[in-house]
Specification:
By secondary structure, the chain is an alpha/beta fold. It has helices spanning about 45-80, 110-115, 120-125, 125-135, 150-160, 170-185, 220-230, 260-270; strands at about 5-15, 30-40, 85, 95-100, 100-105, 140-145, 165-170, 190-195, 205-215, 235-245, 260, 275-280, 285-290.
Length: about 290
Amino acid sequence: MSNARWTANAVILIISIHDKPAGAIAGSDLLEIPIMHRTPLRNCRTCHTHRGLHILLAFLSVLMLWLAPNTDTLAQAAAADSRYVRVAPSPDGIGKRYMGREIAGVMGWEGAQWLERESRAREERPELLLRELALAPGMTVADIGAGTGYYTWQLAKLVGPGGRVYAVDVQPEMIRILDSQMAKRGVRNVVSVLGSETTVKLPPASVDLAIMVDVYHELAYPSEVLDSIIDGLKPGGRVVFVEYRAEDPAVAIKPLHKMSELQVQREASAHGLKWERSIESLPIQHAIVFRKP
């Protein structure tokens, strides 16, 4: 073989990684892996067979590495999808059912003025709700779906300068409106948080109480969001669902934007939350309080 010349042949495996989890690779969506092997240019009857075998083995190795983490991701996605049922959307819904109810469409930031309407204090009596929450100075509260901050600044006042309120919303426009409102009121203990459809992005185990006022029924991914809220609660922390009463036909709110106490309890208990009490002193809403074990 002294006269044989050798050359390096590079085989490039190109694998699409569009289905990889976010952050799995930086830069290109294509992963290029050079596989170097040496092949004599002559006196090698089996070189093509060996080269083909090397390529196949390398490809299989890379494929297994790529599929291993992806299997868990696909399993999680399948489990999440199984929680929801697609249906023909009703006029006020998104065509997606969860635990027997259709999820309502989100009110866009264009409707912000409705959240600040003059009649709201008379219709909902927020002072009654706030008193029932029994907040104390120094507490940390999360206002989920805070919108314009109608409740946020009132919560901030109750927890005082030593406390904190995380004001979470998924609409950047709402966050800008909320920040403007807090600045006008001189409120300095509010931290605005731009959440996503699936997570509220709270620091783990940081919150004494999380509250959703007329919000939960609009969550596109209620199961995932509730899980993320629970993650943000301290042990023994509370989560409060405030919803227009579906049991009362006199409450002049569209049906998909109301929830019964039974439905709220059913969905919250599925996440291990323990019912503590229900507040029925509000004019057109009820507030159902749960505690994290």
